[in-house]
Amino acid sequence: MRGTHPQAVNPWARLIGVLLRLYPGWFRREYGQQIHEAARAELQSTSSGHGAVSRWHVAGDVLVNLGRAWMSTVRSGGAERTPGRRGSRLSSGSGGLRGTGHDLRAAARGLLRRPGFALLAVLTMSVGIGLTAAMFSIVQGLALRGLPLEDAEQIVAIRRVDPDLGEGAIVASGVHLLADLTAEQTTLQGLVGWQGVVMNIADEHEPAASVPGLKVGDGFLSLLRVNPVLGRDFTRDDGAPGAAPVALISHGLWHARFGADSSIVGATIRLDGVPTQVVGVLEEGFAFPRNTDVWLPLQADAAILERGEGPPLFLVGRLREGGSEVEAQTELTLLVQRLGEAYPETDGGYRMLVKEWTADFLGSGGRQGLLTMLLAVSMVLVLACVNVANLLLVRAIAGSRELALRAALGASRARLVRQGLFDALIIAGLGAGGGVVIAHLGSLWFASAWQSLVGAMPFYVDVRVDTGVVLFVSVLAVASGLISALLPVLQVARSDSQDLLRHGARTGANPGVGRISRGLVVVQVAVACALLVGAGVFGSTVGDLRGLDLGLDLDRVFTAALTLPDSVYPEPEQRTNFYTALLARLGSQPDIDAVALTTDLPLSGRGSTRFGLAGNSYGAREAPRARLAAVSPEYFDALGLAAVRGRLLSATDTPDTVRVAVVTRSFADRHLDGNPVGARIVLAPPVDAVPETDQEIEVVGVVDELYGAVQTTSLPREAILVPLQQRPQAGLTGINLVARTSDEPLALTGIVQSELAALDPDLPLAAPTTARQAFVTNYYYLVVFGGLFGVFGLAALLLSAVGVYGVIAFATSRRTHEVGVRLALGATSRSVARLLMRQGLWRVTIGVAVGLVVGRLLASAFAGTFGVSASAPVVFVTVPVVLVLTSLLGSWLPARRAARVDPAATLSSE
Q1: What percent helix, strand, coil does the chain show, rounded to 5?
Q2: Shortest CA distance to 372 belongs to which of 531, 166, 147, 522?
Q3: pLDDT per residue as tens digits for the range 779-790
Q4: Is 269 exposed, middle or buried, given 0-12, 13-18 or 19+ CB atoms closer than 10 A?
Q5: Which of 605, 635, 608, 607 is nearest to 623 (CA)?
Q6: Which residues contact 709 (CB under 8 A, 6 or more apart)?
Q7: Which among 125, 521, 555, 605 counts the fewest CB atoms within 10 Å?
Q8: How far is CA 367 from CA 138, 145, 169, 356, in A?
Q9: Are residues 751 and 592 in contact, defined by beta-carbon separation less than 8 angstroms?
């Protein structure tokens, strides 16, 4: 035996021979020589690298199995002596729990003997399980957990929508519609209206601050089955017009601003400058509808208002026991249609949507999008399982001498199969531990990314690793272990124990193993390609958002919001004077180059209005829509906008002059036939009547686009800009400030807040940020989920690269004899390397082709759900190139190593 070390092997062989003498003669005659040969081969294979430690492990396995075989022989009385009957004695002593425990210990010892293999397998499984569990925690937090309220599945959002603009075009309801629906509907236990407001809170405890507020109708808390922890609920009298102002505050605001002082109940605070009595503190964690801090009674009575008057409302209801969303939606839509026939000007042409509350928050297709993301990341887990399966398969083939030894000692195929399963389950179990850590880190990253882009998550969203996620990880671990063990176990199960004894290490020559390995390459590359295409589609869209040439110079533009409360500034003249004074003070600051006010930030408008061309009449739903913003004259300088045609708005456009407007290029092209300057339009034209001349607005100029740089909504991109001075009702509920600077934009925060406090100390500045960040925030879901998918894609690329390298390296090592023959016959090392690489490349090509098809389907699903572009040619070219280059590198290294072997040494060793 070439390369043996008698001094290391012979003592163990003699010991085995002594132990065999304890067996009956038929056993020694049948199995003795095979046991000697298998043990000698296994001990020889461990004579280098791991040294005495490995030989002790091998010898220990031999001694343990011989001992069990002896016990089995004693229990059976030695009666069964028929030669050729396999496994009856040597396997019988290993059943039950005792045998299982031994197999687990043996599997653990085997992994410890190969720490590099074990570490790689565990890390691979940790990545697959961890990323999948992280995505599951996000899905659970956003879509599955629901509202933390009693019978939360009955709470539904009720939206009025404009079918002409799509399901996402929500139109606020009014107090009259609420009253009519409440009186006639039968499918809901209750129905309440609410109006979201931003409020300025001031008191002696802290400086003025801007807080999210809600004006709610009667029965709001009882509908949600929530009670104050301090104080009382609103009464019907609190909602009567002219009633003394009262408020409920959140548990979080009570702690943060008032130090959890119970004397807050009955105390007076200033809300929008109005002294308001706090009558109660709500339960901890409650902040309905999202992150509300202050609730006020809605003081609006339909009986004393004209139809169409009153605050814009959104509706929340609770289904009756056994009721469904479909039934409620059908009934409410029929009621709205009847109201539309009776009141076409205010209620005509709408329909109603009824959705469970959290599903409504996610929007149309939101849950489908999350489940699509979960399905996509599960492909990473599949890739991890394929990699571990390949590692186990390679390990099983490389350890065929060990299998031969165990077969010689009487281990049945069932025993060998079970051993393989335990190997995979131990790896998956350890991977599950690492997966929990990765899932926790992923949850923290998601919450941090959301916070940085959007602010606090809705109060009912809790993305974390909880018991449900741990249970999910446990199921994944078991499933992943079984899937990973499938191919190696089937390979062992199909192997004949006599072949194992006869061929030893050459069992790996089985051609079926080669086919399995080649198939694994195709699967790995296909999965990685599909995920990289999906990640590339997301990434290209997010890259467009961050680096897009928006036609505007936003790099040095500061933005913030402020609200002038109607209680303090009830008259248009008061608001105009305040805005004028604020702009004058900020314009005198040396760090500010230009400053302006607008009712709608560029690139991120959230609403639209109907308009018409002068001289035309329109039916109830015939007038087209466009974005509308009221701006101060410096708006164009602050954004770096120039007139494409005509002129811009100026300070001379006052209430006493002709009403004018500037429109965007898309508006002029679509509605004014390329002759915009001098055209006349009418905002919100009257139905079935020609508007009066004094309602007309003259178009004086055209500018580049302000909206729709990335069009992912049904809102129009065409826009109309009018002077803020000529539209005094604009900015009633809030306005945005934009300021250009030559320095860091956010450095203006303190300056703006100081000048604002000098004019009104109770008026805080809200949401200071940069103009570009404000734009990106509108597409936060693309940024957040694009980042997630980027991580999935990188993980897929890494796992694929490692897996392809491992498979090709293993396949190449099995062809050492062939390589030696080729070299001995005159082939050059370079030609042999090219041959091996070329044979590996066609499998990669098949995988890429399959992956591109799957990736295209994945990109189409994302396009429909998230509004990303499914046609990204750069992605569909770059991904195959990256994968092919990566695979070529993975093929080149083992091919280069194989081509450098010594043919004489290789052939002689065979």
Answers
A1: 55, 15, 30
A2: 531
A3: 777 777 777 877
A4: buried
A5: 608
A6: 548, 550, 551, 603, 775
A7: 555
A8: 11, 12, 19, 12
A9: yes
